[in-house]
Here is the input.
Amino acid sequence: MRTLAAMLIVAPMAAGCASIPTQSVPDQSMVAWKGKTVAFTSRPRPSMVMMTAGKGAFGPIGVAAGISAGNALVKEDKIPDPAPRVANDLLQIAERHYGVVPATFPPPTVDTRDVAQLANAGKGADLLFDVESLGQGINYYPTDWSHYWLMSGLILRVIDVRTGAVVGEAVCRQNSQHQQNPPDRKQLLANEGQLLKSMIAAQSDACRDQFADQVLRVSAPQGTAGAEAVAQSH
Here is the structure.
């Protein structure tokens, strides 16, 4: 299963995502979307990484401990994967602007980036919106070990099911590293991770708006982007 995992800690984004170019859906395709059915995928939730200075001191072993700690947070505080909500929001945007119709079958479960397999999973619909979460990383500051910042990422692929072609795609990277007054661990995780959940939601909202603009060619209304304090482009 693909996650940010260790790559969240040692690099800006998983290396395999760096090669994905931003591709807007062509105008001629948009014209033909009216009445087309759209499905979106369901993927396993990727790992969350919770790094502390203590874990960071132990290299790969510490990263493994950070993954374990992050996944425990996901389970204990019921932290949702933002991908399904982003996919549903994009579908609604496409409904309003291009007249597409939601598919009548449940989202197909996938765990691959192979476009042919994704297109096959979307059979029964005309288009497939595949939103893949890359997970989240909670990181300490090198000069301030008691406060934390959040990093997350999403990928969108729009696939023409009949032709098996990707007609639009983009990668979104978000982080809160430069926010003012970053939270300490207690603040971040209080009330079943309420602040952490709101930060993840803000970053995923920013990604949704980026995808709508760059891939679907729909500008986000003013005020809908994620809060700047917790959702900064990386």
In short: The chain has one domain: 5-229. Residues 5-229 form one domain. The first strand starts at residue 37 and ends at 40. Helices lie at 5-10, 27-31, 53-56, 59-77, 83-98, 115-121, 185-214.
